[in-house]
Design goal:
heterodimer; A: about 325 residues; mainly alpha; 13 helices; about 75% helix; flat; disordered N terminus; B: about 290 residues; 11 helices
């Protein structure tokens, strides 16, 4: 006996034909991603050459260094900076194509391993924030939407203010309150989970506001759907309706927005890592741009673009699993 | 039970966005509060002398680091300057930066969006790829690189914020243009044999671009937040000037001794940004209701 459910699962539409289409879709997305990476590398390459000043200064440790003319010429040859720009460009792209990120101008270490350790720290921070914001927004909207006036006003008021809070200000407030006054948490990001609490809260709260606003809208729309009416008519409890039928709708925009959210978290990470003196991609980027460490900036830009692309593709895949309508529309 | 259901069903979805009841959007408390806050900030921006009599740059070292009191509502900073006065005088700078940055972002997005929404297949392909690349770079990275090229300052940080908000707007404008392009009234104009230029000018653009005002209103608040972040990183307005982000940046040094240097300029930013959001959403709900008839 076959049981027909009102919401088709992803498995039920997975025929060989759709699987092939899905493969083609993923291949197109990956191809697009490679293109974006190349474009990012190109834009960064030329943009960084527009920054006033000589890159040799960055290598020698700032314009104040009193290097001899021969030393400068030597470095120019060593780093290939005496070549015409277009030659430099193709040399750089050739190296990037085989994941050779070169040596940091300022730190004189290989860029790839250095940036990768920074990436790990930032990934922990941003992914933890994303998860916290996600569940925070979901809990907040499920608990306060479709309720009385007061609950709704409290919920949306909180979302509104949270979304308007600048990261750096929130960080300062949390430091004043939780470290300086209550002495619960360290004001800088010490290694270990305790040092992660303030940075994650700082990044997650504004995002909770944004996600909550969007989820609330789709939740409110979901309450008007016929399937909610029929669920209520079947006598399901209020929370049963919320968790079994409406939740999916609240989750959808949250998932599709996660790619965007991740991008904004990377931007926020620059500020948060600076304030909490936490090692990471953001702080590395800020100092590398300031001292014009071209290989490091390029690597950070490419890595964040790559992470962004992966997260976007992943959210689209999850989107298709949670909401089979996406696939149907795409196939039509 | 049915009554509750009927009530839920007949609820217009605009209700979630701030429209409650039939009374119109001005009846909502949140919109009224938002308008009041914005009126206050606009007054502070245009005529700060109306709200405060003090000089924002008057230094009084003997009165440094005074906690909030009747004489100094928001306390004093490290040079004894009145924080309340500086917050009032900072409104102009912050508001101007927010509005200008949004204008830059929308302008850039308009070019990209028009190319994508109305241009040829090639134009659409090119603009979509540009937007994709801009999206893949974290907004702050774009801003940082731009500031490194052009040098820190008010104008640069304003353009930088506009630059990093442009891809989001471009995507919305493009999809808006595309959906209007396929609307039945545009089809009707095509059938009537109107020229393409006339259709675009008289039918597509007005329909597609009316939400831009709403988008802009929603965006100003976020632009102020971003610009203040750049100011906080020391890349925006130079410190002695009264600008909220720069004030927070210099107040951070004294966070252990003078919390008021951090709390009040930040409150001003949050109040402004939230008010713009409330206003933008109310406008949005109203245009949607009007569109529905």
């Amino acid at each position: 006996m076959t049981v027909s459910t009102d919401a088709p699962t992803a498995a039920s539409v997975s025929t060989p034909a759709t699987r092939l289409r899905s493969l083609g879709w993923i291949a197109r997305r990956v191809g697009g991603g490679v293109f974006v990476l190349w474009a990012v590398a190109t834009v960064i390459f030329f943009a960084l050459r527009l920054i006033p000043g000589d890159p040799v200064d960055a290598i020698l440790g700032g314009p104040g260094s009193q290097a001899s003319a021969e030393a400068v010429a030597q470095i120019r040859t060593d780093y290939g900076l005496d070549q015409p720009l277009i030659v430099q460009y193709f040399l750089a792209m050739g190296k990037l194509a085989v994941a050779d990120f070169g040596t940091s101008y300022a730190l004189k270490v290989a860029v790839a391993p250095y940036v990768l350790t920074q990436l790990w720290s930032t990934l922990v921070l941003t992914l933890a924030s994303l998860v916290v914001a996600w569940f925070g927004a979901l809990a907040l909207t499920l608990a306060t939407s479709g309720r009385g006036r007061v609950a709704r006003a409290l919920g949306s008021g909180f979302e509104l203010l949270a979304a308007a809070v600048p990261h750096f200000w929130l960080a300062s407030l949390l430091i004043i309150l939780l470290s300086n006054t209550l002495h619960w948490l360290p004001p800088i990001s010490v290694p270990g989970p305790l040092g992660l609490v303030l940075p994650v809260l700082t990044l997650a709260l504004p995002l909770t506001g944004f996600l909550g606003q969007v989820m609330r809208e789709s939740l409110t729309n979901a309450y008007e759907q016929p399937f909610v009416l029929s669920a209520r008519a079947r006598g399901e409890s209020e929370w049963g309706v919320r968790l079994r039928h409406v939740l999916r709708h609240a989750a959808l925009p949250g998932i599709s927005l996660s790619g965007w959210a991740f991008g904004s978290l990377l931007s926020g990470a620059v500020v948060v890592e600076t304030i909490f003196a936490r090692p990471g991609l953001g702080r590395t980027l800020l100092s590398a741009v300031t001292i014009r460490d071209i290989p490091v900036v390029t690597a950070v830009a490419l890595l964040s673009a790559l992470t962004f692309i992966i997260v976007t593709i992943a959210t689209d895949v999850v989107d298709r699993i949670v909401d089979p309508r996406v696939t149907e529309v795409a196939a039509r | 039970m049915t009554e509750i259901l009927a009530g839920r069903l007949s609820q217009p979805s605009g209700r979630a966005l701030g429209i409650r009841g039939r009374g119109g959007w001005l009846r909502n408390t949140d919109v009224i509060i938002a308008l009041a806050v914005l009126a206050l900030i606009l007054t502070a921006a245009l005529a700060p002398q109306l709200i405060t009599t003090a000089d924002p740059d008057a230094v009084a070292p003997a009165e440094a680091f005074q906690a909030p009191s009747a004489a100094h509502f928001f306390g004093t900073d490290e040079s004894g300057r009145d924080v309340y006065t500086r917050v009032v005088f900072g409104a102009g700078n912050s508001l101007l930066i927010g509005i200008a940055a949004t204008a830059v972002g929308l302008g850039l997005a308009l070019i990209l969006g028009l190319l994508g929404g109305l241009g040829s297949r090639l134009g659409d392909f090119v603009s979509t790829r540009i937007v994709e690349v801009m999206f893949a770079l974290p907004g702050l990275l774009l801003a940082l690189v731009f500031i490194a090229i052009a040098g820190p300052g008010v104008v640069t940080s304003t353009v930088a914020v506009g630059l990093s908000t442009a891809p989001g707007y471009a995507r919305i404008i493009r999809s808006q243009l595309r959906s209007v392009r396929n609307a039945s009234y545009v089809e009707a104009a095509t059938v009537l044999g109107h020229s393409r230029a006339r259709i675009v000018w008289q039918h597509i653009l007005p329909g597609a671009l009316s939400p831009i005002f709403v988008l802009g209103t929603l965006g100003v608040g976020q632009a102020i937040v971003w610009a203040s972040s750049l100011g906080f990183l020391g890349l925006g307005v130079a410190p002695p000037a009264a600008e909220w982000g720069a004030m927070l940046s210099s107040g951070r040094t004294y966070i252990d001794v003078a919390w008021w240097l951090t709390v009040f300029p930040g409150l001003a930013i949050v109040a402004t940004a939230a008010s713009f959001t409330v206003l933008g959403r109310a406008l949005n709900a109203r245009t949607r209701q009007e569109a529905r008839g």
